[in-house]
Specification:
This protein is of the alpha+beta class and about 80 residues long. The chain is built from two helices and five strands. Helix content is about 15%, strand content about 40%.
């Protein structure tokens, strides 16, 4: 399951960051690392962007980036 498939107000744990190159590196740099617990707070209309809370910060991701983040449901952010 990817972040793109998660419903609003759901806790999840990041399992893996797919992709390669600059996009993957930037996702890891902002804290989207395997094992990190987060919460999907809001999804923009037409699923164009995702707002997540991760380690006390709010991060907005475009849908293309959300498709690269494999997650496991559960955990408490």
């Amino acid at each position: 399951m990817t972040l793109f498939d998660v419903q609003e107000n759901t806790d999840f744990i990041i399992r893996k960051i797919r992709g390669a190159g600059t996009v993957r590196r930037r996702l890891l740099d902002i804290g989207l690392a395997p094992g990190a617990r987060a919460r999907l707070v809001r999804i923009a209309p037409f699923k164009s962007a995702y707002l997540i809370e991760l380690r006390g910060f709010s991060i907005a991701l475009k849908c293309d980036a959300a498709r690269l983040v494999d997650v496991v449901m559960g955990g408490r952010a």
